[in-house]
């Protein structure tokens, strides 16, 4: 099968998300200019640079109470900071709860009964029990083609690692099993890892 997205795919559901998988989930926490906290998951998320360490996530829809975007991007525009919380398999249900289109004044931490802590280098909340959290300062927001498509880039200013996830000096993902996003309504979980040596090692 071949199709051009501009002409449609003719399938019951869009296969695009199922092709680009698995995708890590950035559980983005923000605090607005008035001190209200927000937490929402984004599966268009990844690390993009080592030095300095940088990450990005993309928001692809809008809410009526936010105009051209969603709460996360709107808050980051105003404050210039955000935190990326890594989602473990054990948090799948509460993460999913925070994905709803809640009102801009709704605190998803409270809504899903998620323990909250303050970040160290930025004025922003974080998921207290997350396996890892990246404290980020905004570098740029890029408006992509299409309605409400924004890519948010940030420099990592601080890193929280949960102690039980460190094994012999390595951050061991098998200790918490990262949740990953597939296509449609599907998810997966990382439980096995293997290593490959590069040709020039």
TrEMBL record:
<feature type="domain" description="Flavin reductase like">
    <location>
        <begin position="18"/>
        <end position="173"/>
    </location>
</feature>
<dbReference type="InterPro" id="IPR012349">
    <property type="entry name" value="Split_barrel_FMN-bd"/>
</dbReference>
<dbReference type="Pfam" id="PF01613">
    <property type="entry name" value="Flavin_Reduct"/>
</dbReference>
<dbReference type="GO" id="GO:0010181">
    <property type="term" value="F:FMN binding"/>
</dbReference>
<dbReference type="GO" id="GO:0016646">
    <property type="term" value="F:oxidoreductase activity, acting on the CH-NH group of donors, NAD or NADP as acceptor"/>
</dbReference>
<protein>
    <submittedName>
        <fullName>NADH-FMN oxidoreductase RutF, flavin reductase (DIM6/NTAB) family</fullName>
    </submittedName>
</protein>
<dbReference type="InterPro" id="IPR002563">
    <property type="entry name" value="Flavin_Rdtase-like_dom"/>
</dbReference>
């Amino acid at each position: 099968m071949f199709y051009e997205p501009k002409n449609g795919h003719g399938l019951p559901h869009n296969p695009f998300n199922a092709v680009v998988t698995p995708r890590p989930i950035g559980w983005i926490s923000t605090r607005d200019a008035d001190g209200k906290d927000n937490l929402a998951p984004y599966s268009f998320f990844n690390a993009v640079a080592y030095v300095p360490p940088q990450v990005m996530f993309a928001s692809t829809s809008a809410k009526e109470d936010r105009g051209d975007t969603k709460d996360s991007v709107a808050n980051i525009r105003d404050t210039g900071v955000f935190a990326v919380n890594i989602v473990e398999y054990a948090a799948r249900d509460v993460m999913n709860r925070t994905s709803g289109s809640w009102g801009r004044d709704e605190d998803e931490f409270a809504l899903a009964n998620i323990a909250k802590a303050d970040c160290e280098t930025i004025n922003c909340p974080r998921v207290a029990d997350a396996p890892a959290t990246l404290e980020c300062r905004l570098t740029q927001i890029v408006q992509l083609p299409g309605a409400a498509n924004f890519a948010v880039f940030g420099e990592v200013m601080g890193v929280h690692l949960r102690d039980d996830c460190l094994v012999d000096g390595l951050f061991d993902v098998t200790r918490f099993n990262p949740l990953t996003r597939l296509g449609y309504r599907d998810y997966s979980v990382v439980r096995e890892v293997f290593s490959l040596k590069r040709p020039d090692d």
